[in-house]
From TrEMBL:
Membrane topology of this protein: Multi-pass membrane protein
GO biological process: siderophore-iron import into cell
Annotated transmembrane regions: 26-47, 68-88, 94-119, 131-151, 157-177, 205-224, 251-279, 291-311, 317-338
Cited InterPro entries: ABC_BtuC-like, ABC_transptr_permease_BtuC
Alphabetized CDD domains for the sequence: TM_ABC_iron-siderophores_like
Localization of this protein: Cell membrane
Molecular function as annotated in GO: transmembrane transporter activity
Name the record gives this protein: Iron ABC transporter permease
Amino acid sequence: MFKTAFHLPEQRHSGPLTDSKHLRTYAVLVTILALLSTGFTVGILLWDNPTELFSDGWWLIVGMRRDSLLTIGLVALCHAVATIAFQTAVNNRIITPGIMGFGSLYTLIQTGTVFLFGAAGVNALVGIGPFFAQMAAMMLLATLLYTWLLSGKFSNVHIMLLVGVVLGGTLGSLSNFMQRMLEPSTFDVLTARLFGNISNARTEYLPYTVPIALAVVVIFWMWAPKLNVMALGRTTAQNLGLNHKAELIKILALVSVLISLATALVGPMMFLGFLCAMLAYQFGDTYSHRLLFPLGALAGYTVLSGSYFILRHVWDAGGAVTVIVELIGGAVFLYFILRKGRL
């Protein structure tokens, strides 16, 4: 007896979501993350507001918390998109953009200013001008590395990454040398700036940083088909007609914009991007960057906002938010490094 089309098993195809089960899994995951992030957002806005409901003071506190949420969303978006694009460009799911020395350069700028001008030097780095100066310095460092090490005849992305590691270690050693010569009180002031902290971001930065970040993310969204091809590897991408070297330099340049922006805004966060990207890879299980980008950003926002809500509003330990996020990200990093099997 012949089977009709209604009796045939569901066939897999080669799209980003291979079958209806895969689609349902992705939809359920996005729904869960959206519900969690919405709950944490509402909790941050409304939980433990000491003033009278809907009074002027109540709205003032809600407005301040709203700015913190915008910062959390911006940082999560920048780290998630930049890390996924960076790992695709270099064809490695272990390393992150932080390997290029962004955090080390940020630390050197902060330490050098305090070393030269004392505790008052921290205030010298506050404002739109100093913010963009720090961002420009980090972008300049990355751009010099890209153009120098990827444009020659014997260009090699692995040499570029190795130089980035060595340069980051050198900058870190110079920062440690200057920190050891500071007075204890001055060192305490500096330490508060060196940890990634949501409270480091100032409200006047957001009207400038949000449009820049959104513009870069839109470009990456439009380049998603190119990223899908680059994920196949250098040789395959070239055989398919993609100018791999040119696209690599453009992608890394935009990655430097996002990471330098996020680092100048709140400080270095080494493992946040890795955590966002790895959650997107493991739970999304797809090659499509137009599915990975939103999933990674949503996962990052959920982790950051959840940590912020629990530690700041429940345990009253707001300063430890990014420390906990980095601890979780570092543990996940070690797990995937040590485990056997595919990433």
